[in-house]
Design goal:
single chain, 216 residues, alpha/beta, Lambda Exonuclease, Chain A, seven-stranded mixed sheet, 8 helices
Amino acid sequence: MEEAAMSWTEDDLIPLSALQHLVFCRRQCALIHVEQIWDENLFTAEGRIMHERVHEADRESRGDVRIERGVPLRSLRLGLIGKADVVEFHRVGEDKWRPFPVEYKRGKPKVDESDKVQLCAQAMCLEEMLNVEIDKGAVFYGKTRRRLDVSLDQGLREETEKAARDAHELLALGRTPEAAYTKKCKSCSLINYCLPKIIQKKPSVEQYLQKAVEDL
């Protein structure tokens, strides 16, 4: 069976958010979803409050747009389960509506594709659940107060499918990758658990044994 055609069972489903964590940092993904470590900092607290406010708001109708919040998502093809912050349903004909997912983030657009992959995964879940095609979505950033429209093209879809496969493999392996310090570590709420600067400087067992032999 081809990887793209793989089908998972209900017991195999992993959190959709794991894809965003994995693209941002594989070690962070393992710390959260394998070791079950989580800690809040100012950034995650602001993000959590934003999501709670979005999910608690009432559904809306604005002309040819219906707005649903906190929409449950699932894909047996990708093996994902989660929730969309907002799904706008745009009228495209009489009694015909096209979903338009909107993900909310507290900060500003990232240099990596982690937010776009999370949004694309939401769209692919909706496509599977509703038997529709979705070509666009958006990410709303709280810091800039603007929406970034995202084209759900083939390249992003392939990256999202790969992230889903990699996340399943990482969680099934149950092993946390080694630390590697980068600039984005500064904004990670798990930096005090990860300790990337300290851990990556520790000599490996092989280096330790080699030095011990040299000192004889």
